[in-house]
Each structure stands twice: as C-alpha cells, then as structure tokens.
Amino acid sequence: MRLYLALSCLLLVVESEIHIFESKTTEIPAQRGTRIYFLTNGNEDDLRDITIKAEKSHIDTNVSKYSVPQVDGSLNPLTITADNDTVVITRPVGNTTPVTVYQDRVTDSLNVFPVFSNSAIQFKSGKNVFFAVDKPNGKILTIKNLKVDRQNNGFLRAYSGVPGDLIPPPYLFFSSDLYDDVNFYQQLDIPLSDFSLDVVFSGVSYTVSFGEATTTLQSAGLVMSPGFPTTMQPSDVSYTVRRTGDELISLHMNPYFYREQSYITDINVKFGFGVEQGNSFPSELNGRLSASGAINSVEVKSIGAFAIQYYTNSTATSGTVPVEIGTTPSVQTTTKSSYLKQASLSFLTLFASLLLR
Ligand SMILES: *[C@@H]1O[C@H](CO)[C@@H](O)[C@H](O)[C@H]1NC(C)=O
Ligand SMILES: *[C@@H]1O[C@H](CO)[C@@H](O)[C@H](O)[C@H]1NC(C)=O
Ligand SMILES: *[C@@H]1O[C@H](CO)[C@@H](O)[C@H](O)[C@H]1NC(C)=O
C-alpha cells in the first residue's frame, strides 16, 4: 500500500534530463491480489499513451481504461493475478499528464474515488478513500450534509491520508461518536489532497465535493488547517458565529492536534460588547471547549496543525432567562488553561444593566 507520485518523477526528468532519457519508466513490485488505482484528470489521448505492463499477469494495456470513474464515482483497479510480478508504467517523452498511482492489497471493501471540480460523490459502504485530482481555484475538499442515523448503526470516522500510509499513519480528525446528540453536520472542511472514511453502514449519508472553506460556523461541522496534521505553519483564522438579535449560543469544540509536535493553539471566544476569552491548548493533550453567552466569533491562532469538530446550539434569548445563567459569558476547557483578556469588567453588571435598556 503505497503512493507513487508519478507526476513529480516525470517533471524532474522532462525538465532536467530530457536529452538523456527517451521515456520515463516506473516499476512497481506487486503481488497476486494487488490492486492498482490510477488517479488523474488527464485527457484520454495522453492517458492512452501511458502504457502498463505486468508480464506474469499477462497485462499489456494503458492508463485510459482505469482512469474513468464508474457511475458511483469510484475507480476500477488494475488487479495483479500472479505472484512476484512487476508492473511497469511507461510514458512517452513530452507527456506531462499528472497521474498518481495508488496501490493496496489488504484493505477489504476498498473504494477509491478521484474528486473532480464538478464531482458530487455520495455515500458508498466500505472503506472509502478520496483523492483531489483537480485543484479548483481557492476551493478545498469538503463533506457536505453529513447525516448520521445511529439507529441504523450510522457512524463516521475520517482520517487524513490513505490506509497504509506510514508517515504519518492515517490520522483521525473527525468522529461522529464524539457528540451523541448531533446527527447532522452541514460541512466538514478538508483542505488535504487525500483522506479516508472508515467503514460505514447504511445509517450515513453525505456528499463529497469541492467547496469554499468555512467562514461562519453553522450548527455543526469541522474546520481544519491546510495539510493537517503534519503541516506546521502559523495561522490566525476568525470564524463568525451566526446569532440573531439577543440569542445566546452554546459552543462546543473538540480540537485535534498533531501530537508528535509540541506547539500551542489559542482559541479565543469573542462575546458581544468587546469581551473575549482566550484558551490555550497544548498539542499533546486532548482539549475540549464549551462556551456560552452572546458569542459573536471565534478566533483560532496556531503555529501548527489543528482540526476542530464543533457544534453550536441556541440556548435562549437574553430577555427570557435569569441573568446568572443566561448572560454570563462562560468558557470551560479540559486543559484548565483559560485566561481572561479583559479582567476589569464585571460581566454580570454589564450584562444586567444592558438588559434593563
Ligand atoms: C489503450 O487502451 C484502450 C482500452 O483498453 C484500447 O482501446 C486502446 O487501443 C489502447 N491504446 C493503446 C495506444 O494501446
Ligand atoms: C516470490 O518471491 C519470494 C521472495 O523472493 C520467494 O520466496 C517466493 O518463492 C516467490 N514466489 C513465487 C510463486 O515465485
Ligand atoms: C440543543 O438544545 C436543545 C434545547 O435545549 C436540546 O434539546 C438539544 O439536545 C441540544 N442539542 C445538542 C446537540 O446538544
């Protein structure tokens, strides 16, 4: 189970050694039962010119046949039928079609999906792997309208990377088991080039496609730093929280970090009237955050990778609840590292007097 990035090899040859090599050949050792998937958005003529040979399995074909998805969006693999075979993939000089080759022998019920800019891939039972083959401007991979029906054994776990990845191994970034009462997520942001979903049963539905990154938190979803979990780059992102009038919101967040690296992520919850509360999460610990009150936005600052599964709920309007519960901004985190940025105000006094307007 390995990924061969045929494109990068090819570019190297074409750019730097075109005078020496007539063609570029990739050899992949393969066993009986090995399935090879060809992920590409190249045009058919170019793909026809890229040949595939495996002597012992009597395979002599080209990539075009394996690059077109079936009706459900998944690919037909090339399957090796002989022991100790070698798959030889050759492309002619000048052919620069990007092709990624993905190989697996052990994963049961594996479905491999290329995602194109116009794809809308629906649920299919099994272990599902998704690859971004297009890169539409500014868009990212997303799972939209995720429904989890627990009564039909529905659950979903999502991992970065593909089954069999070694560095890092597939890394959990979403689990529907986390919040028992949340059965619908509007959007999971997945700014990665590939990810996989655990075996799921009939109690799940979703659409995988390209979409815009989240800017306003909805009732439930996931936000993520690009290249999670291994990409370490500073980020400072603000998410608006949708709230109408005097409505009070409860916000629940479960961050996932890359535990192999040590870094801090600050999640600042910003309430109305300029009050904000910061919470620092070390990457080595599981953090949880719950906040309630007149929340306007949430700012996430990190020097490393994060994925945050969240949900919000409307608690009430400030006009109808007692001051003590309804209007005091409150934040609880499991890491006990909260700090108040604006300590001079008495929230109770401020909010209580505003209620009397
Ligand atoms: C490529 O494969 C297709 C489908 O198997 C076949 O029709 C075509 O002749 C092949 N082209 C070449 C150049 O081998
Ligand atoms: C495959 O290769 C392994 C290691 O080289 C060898 O032990 C085994 O006998 C080979 N199997 C067949 C069927 O050729
Ligand atoms: C949201 O609030 C309502 C009313 O209090 C409650 O019934 C529901 O379970 C809450 N949803 C979640 C996901 O906690």
Question: What is the spatial order of strands in the main beta sheet?
Answer: 10-17-12-15-19-26-21-24-27
Protein structure class: mainly beta
What compounds are bound to the protein? Answer: 2-acetamido-2-deoxy-beta-D-glucopyranose
Unreliable stretches, pLDDT < 50, 5 or more residues? 5-22, 319-328, 336-357
Share of helix among residues?
A: under 10%
User: Nearest-angstrom radius of gyration?
Assistant: 24 Å
Number of helices: 5
Between the first and last Cα atoms, what is the distance in angstroms?
A: 65 Å
Structural commentary:
The protein has about 350 residues and is mostly beta strands. The chain folds into three domains: about 1-105, Jelly Rolls; about 110-215, Spermadhesin, CUB domain (Jelly Rolls); about 245-355, no CATH class. The chain has five helices and 28 strands. The protein has helices at about 5-15, 45-50, 65, 325, 345-355, and strands at about 5, 25-30, 35-40, 50-55, 60, 80, 85-90, 100-105, 110-115, 120, 125-130, 140-150, 155-160, 170-175, 185-190, 195-200, 205-210, 215, 220-225, 235-240, 245-255, 265-270, 275-280, 290-295, 295-300, 305-315, 330-335, 340. Strands 10-17-12-15-19-26-21-24-27 form a nine-stranded mixed β-sheet, with no helix packed on it. Strands 18-20-25-22-23-28 form a six-stranded mixed β-sheet, with no helix packed on it. Strand 4 and strand 5 form a beta hairpin. It is elongated, with a radius of gyration of 24 Å. The chain starts with a strand and ends with a helix. Mean pLDDT is about 85; it is low at about 5-20, about 320-330 and about 335-355. Bound molecules: 2-acetamido-2-deoxy-beta-D-glucopyranose (NAG) (3 copies). One 2-acetamido-2-deoxy-beta-D-glucopyranose binds near residues 181, 182 and 313.
